[in-house]
Amino acid sequence: MIKTYKKEYDYSYTLGVFLTIELLKFKYEYATMVAIFSKTKDSDGIEIIKELCKEHHIKCEINDKQINNLSPKSNCYAVGFFKKYNCKINNKNKHIVLVNPSDSGNLGTIMRSMAGFTATDLAIIKPAVDIFDPKTIRASMGAIFHINFEYFDTFEKYKKLQPENRNFYPFMLSASKPLQDLKPQMPYSFIFGNESSGLTDNFKTVGQCVIIPHSTIIDSLNLQTAVAIALYSTSL
To answer: What is the secondary structure of 100-121 as a DSSP string?
Structure first.
């Protein structure tokens, strides 16, 4: 019986038919096993899972007990298990840089927005939430399997590895450059701070600081909303 996820484990899992299909389509080389619920209502999806498992020689079994042990919801009909993997961001591409993100749901939603606006590279500055947490994977709706991501101990270590011509755009409430006036030059990095504290004043000297104008009714935008707006604005 595979235990409920903990960060120190070398494996994680997808909870649900769609997420499991995404795993088997795009990261099948890391998949180790799939558990299927015996009385599934999603026969088409289950058939796809079975076909993909057969194609990639991945064990697939009916295991209601395992699914019930791992899934907090009663409508989970498949769980895909996989080994954690490392990947590298491409320094020729645009980057989303998250400094100390702390919420699994936010991180997952941000990856989904990235996939929706063809941003494929995510840099995460520690300390940070675990990208392999099943809650993060679920919130990403499988987008995690389409994204290159890399953790860095500090922003300075991330920056040091970038080419000299990379442009940095920290998003800060104290900035004077409105997003609508920004014309980012490739390669570039959009930098966002922690959900509650944002970026420190040190980032004022990193590059061109940017603000997303909003009404005075709110004091700031949610992190995942800010990232989605920035991606959409610069994808037009």
So the answer is: S---HHHHHHHHHHHHHTT--E
